[in-house]
Amino acid sequence: MNKTYYTCHVNLGKKSYKVITPTEEILGLHVVSAGIRSVVICADEGSLQRLSELLKILTRMKDIIVYLPSKQNPLTEYLMERWSTKGTGNDLVFMHHSLQFNTKDWKQLRSLMKKGSYQTKEVIPAAMEQRKTKPIRYWYREHKDFLDIKERYDTLFLVGSPMIFQHMSEDAISIKKEGRELFERFPGYHEHEHIDDYTRRVYDKKYKHYGWALSLDFYDEELWGS
Q: If we measure between CA atoms, which residue out of 118, 100, 171, 106 comes closest to residue 9?
């Protein structure tokens, strides 16, 4: 099924970037800072579906930046009390390593976007088969196809590759399919996937892991009651 997105071309220095964002707000998406290098992405069924579609687009379009202005979605009382350490959510940005975009330039790029002109474009998400288990290759440090995570300017940046975004899209659909049923069987339980499995494994001199903690969680405001 075709989806419509806004596209905006922005010139920054000698480079030009193409930014896409959904024409419809994704109201059930919350990107919650839960501490130092710790973030929980909470989404209801509809938001998980939209997130999966956007990630599918990234599997075949390497020249785009996907921007989701999710900070505008107020955090619920539950999210504020359960996870948030700063009281507001983050925006969410996806892009490929090959763009070599410096996230320090995001504030300027976002400002230019507000002054730029937008066009609407229909995109057909790529079809893909659903996997049954998470690829074991991400459990080993030597694997080179990593997800990089950065957080600045109230924005969470997820920088990856077609393979990474494909697996994340599959994660979103898996959570969407099972989230409601598992909540009804085990009230209060968040079905989730650890997106940090795709990140670079960073260790200190004592071999203690100190990288990012990032998960994608099923969360429906009505089910949780707040």
A: 118
Candidates 121, 25, 126, 116; CA nearest to 67 is 25
Find the helix or strand (DSSP H, E) in which 95 lies: strand 91-96
Q: Are 89 and 75 in contact (CB under 8 A)?
A: yes
* CB contact at 8 A, 39 and 86: no
Q: Rounded to whole angstroms, what are the CA distances from 53 to 38, 178, 180?
A: 25, 18, 20
Q: Cβ atoms within 10 A of the Cβ of 134, count? A: 16
- Rounded distance between C-alpha atoms, residue 2 and residue 21, angstroms: 15
What φ, ψ does residue 175 adopt, rounded to 5°?
-65, -40
- Give ∠ CA 120-121-127 in degrees, rounded to 5: 145
Model confidence pLDDT, tens digit, residues 159-185: 999 999 999 999 999 999 999 999 989
CB atoms under 10 Å from CB of 128, counted, come to 15
Structure tokens at 144: 């080179």
Q: pLDDT digits over 65-106, tens only?
A: 999 999 999 999 999 998 999 889 999 999 999 999 999 999
pTM of structure: 0.89
Q: Which amino acid is at 192?
A: H
Length of the chain (residues): 226
For the purposes of burial, counting CB atoms within 10 Å of the CB of 31, is it exposed (0-12), middle (13-18) or buried (19 or more)?
buried
List the beta bridge partners of residue 16: 11
Q: Are 7 and 119 in contact (CB under 8 A)?
A: yes
List residues bridging with 147 in a β-sheet. Answer: 199
